[in-house]
Amino acid sequence: MSINVGEILLNLWNDSGFAAIFSGFLSSGGWQNLVMIIIACVLLYLGIVKQFEPLLLVGIAFGCLLSNLPSAGLYNQELWTNFMDANHEAYHSYGVIMREGGLLDIFYIGVKAGLYPCLIFMGVGAMTDFGPLLSNPKSLLLGAAAQLGVFAAFFGAVAMGFTGSEAASIGIIGGADGPTAIFLTTQLAPHLLGAIAVAAYSYMALIPLIQPPFMKMLTTAEQRKIKMVQTRTVSKTEKIIFPILVTVFVALLLPDTAPLIGCLMLGNLFRETGVTDRLSDTVQNALMNIVTILLSTAVGATMVGSTFLTAETLKIVVLGVCAFVLSTCGGLIGGVVMCKLTGGKVNPLIGSAGVSAVPMAARVANKEGQKANPANFLLMHAMGPNVAGVIGSAIAAGFLLSVFG
Amino acid sequence: MMMLTALAEKIGIADAGIVALLGYGVVFLGLILLLIVVAILGKAFTSGNKKAEKEPESAPAPAPVVQEPQLAPGSAGQLKLHDVPPKTAAMLMAIVADKMGKPLNELRFISIKEVK
Fold first, then answer.
1. How many domains is chain B partitioned into structurally?
2. A213, A352, B13, B42 - which has most CB atoms within 10 Å?
3. What is the pLDDT of residues A217-257, one digit of tens each?
4. Inter-chain CB proximity B7 and A404 less than 8 Å
5. B16: nearest CB among A143, A158, A254
6. Å from A77 to nearest chain B CA?
7. What tens digit of pLDDT does each residue of A63-120 get?
8. What are the DSSP calls for A153-213, one per residue?
9. Structural domain for B50, as ranges
């Protein structure tokens, strides 16, 4: 038997993506994949050159690039459609995904099972100091007020024709909390995951541009100048009891929130105990980095042309920015009310930090405070509402999951 | 359960308004309850600390020993540290030098004290 070089070369050509492109790929809907590859390159530019949330955006963009390459087979949308179809034999079968799926399908199992967002939350917990919140518990109210955008965007999404589940997933963008948005969307509207994740992370990166105009609009120059007094020192024991207390309390109140809050508080307990430094270090660094790689590429892979290039994506982009703005306004209004009730002891700017986005939102509040009064240091005061926002958005997600899940 | 499934599929504007208000209310309720719990925890700890501070006063205390603040190692006996570990002190001095734009050996630190 002699080797037919011509046949080998022909087979290689037929298996290649180039052959797919030249054999009617573009006319049979492939143009959408081409557009998505261009979008992936734009996102890579934003991540690498403009440094918009690069740790996530670079992975998301590259996942998008990989899943839209013709014939690569790294991510198979139809497998996940069958996975969600109650009448299909592959319904909820991870075995089928493992057997027939590509690499990014296997990465996506961790998103679908809600594993990655929870592990990211564990890392966030290990990196968060709840001291400012414990020393000034009233911050929790600002964290609650800043969830306004979640529910306003939910209402807006229903008005624009989305179903309840889809509207809930869109609304949670206003929580400014990536893992929570991914967790909820995976449960309620997985077909919108790519658009929602990109909107959530892009707007989080744009917080320094989105928030300041509304901070100036809703507060007076005098209010922005208010210097806040130093809060009390929180003992180590309080910091150890807090995560245990919050886990029990919130999980009893809204059991659907238990995976997120449980992981957030476990990570925080690792940080505060003082006897699990190695675990705290692993969760904050190695684990967080590994999960970020898997999460971002898997989420990016869901940005397939046929599902992403729709009018719904544009609506999500618009609703997402509205959600962010309204959450900022909600927090600021809460801050103004608190300022008036305390006789001017609270600088209302810290209310804007009630949107999660830790610690970016707190930094923006500090910066705007210093613009009004260079001797003003609001960072630690703004960290209270900031971490309260993380708990608040998790509670909001738990509520939406219990209604629509 | 059937009602919830129906809500997930199609929802009217009025129902959406009710869910939105209810949701915002639940977030507030949850965080207000948490605020109460955290405030109670804080009160318990601050009152516990105050008691601990008062107790030595009531007891027949031994003659007070005035302890000189610990001298920082390698500071030629100049710098006094009040409840500040040497590592933190070194970090603070480096930050001050950096902010002032002057080399560390041209600055003289007399004492470092934690503001409580």
1. 2
2. A352
3. 999 999 999 999 877 888 999 999 999 999 999 999 889 89
4. yes
5. A158
6. 22
7. 999 999 887 889 998 899 899 888 999 998 999 999 999 999 999 999 999 999 999 9
8. HHHHHHHTT--HHHHHHHHGGGG--HHHHHHHHHHH-GGGHHHHHHHHHHHHHTHHHHHHH
9. 13-58
